[in-house]
Amino acid sequence: MKSEEKQIHKCSVCESEVTEQDERKSHHDDKTIKELVTRMNRIEGQIRGIKGMIERHVYCDDILNQISSAQSALDGASRLLLEKHMKSCVKERLQGDDDQVVDEVLKTIFRMIR
């Protein structure tokens, strides 16, 4: 299917129009989902901790170090998800002759490395 051709149909639940792209889902196994959720929970805690540090007027350098740590944790989660995405979602779409996925992934990678 070409990028300008989008199949539109009605959602069976809310009756609104949805495109095929709106319905895409990941195909990750339970282990991967659990690992990603665990990482996100840890990062969420880090962010709450940083917020508390700001509210308590903690020394700026200490806060900046914690922000750097949270960014590194997010980068790690991104790399894990990108790897799993390439090995499942992208592979499956390429096998289905959907070459548009290459442009999609490149756009995502370029956004990640900015």
Detailed description of the structure:
Keywords: DNA-binding. This is DNA-binding transcriptional regulator, FrmR family. The chain is mainly α. The protein has a single domain (28-112), classed as Methane Monooxygenase Hydroxylase, Chain G, domain 1, CATH 1.20.58.1000. The protein has 3 helices and 2 strands. It has a two-stranded antiparallel sheet. A hairpin with a 6-residue loop joins β1 and β2. α1 packs antiparallel against α2 (60-95). The longest helix has 36 residues, at 60-95.
> What profile does the largest beta sheet have?
2 strands, antiparallel
> What's the CATH H-level superfamily name?
Metal-sensitive repressor, helix protomer
CATH class: Mainly Alpha
Q: What would you call the shape?
A: elongated
Based on the coordinates given, report the CATH architecture.
Up-down Bundle
Question: Termini, distance in Å?
Answer: 30 Å
Task: Give the uncertain stretches in residue-range form.
Answer: 9-18
CATH topology name, in short, is: Methane Monooxygenase Hydroxylase, Chain G, domain 1
**Strand fraction:** 5-15%
Indicate how many domains the architecture comprises: 1
As a percent range, the share of helical residues equals 55-70%
Cα Rg = 19 Å
Helix/strand-derived class? mainly alpha
* Number of helices, counting only DSSP H or I runs of 4 residues or more: 3
Average pLDDT over all residues: 85
What is the ordering of alpha helices and beta strands? EEHHH
What is the number of E strands? 2
Widest sheet, order of strands:
1-2
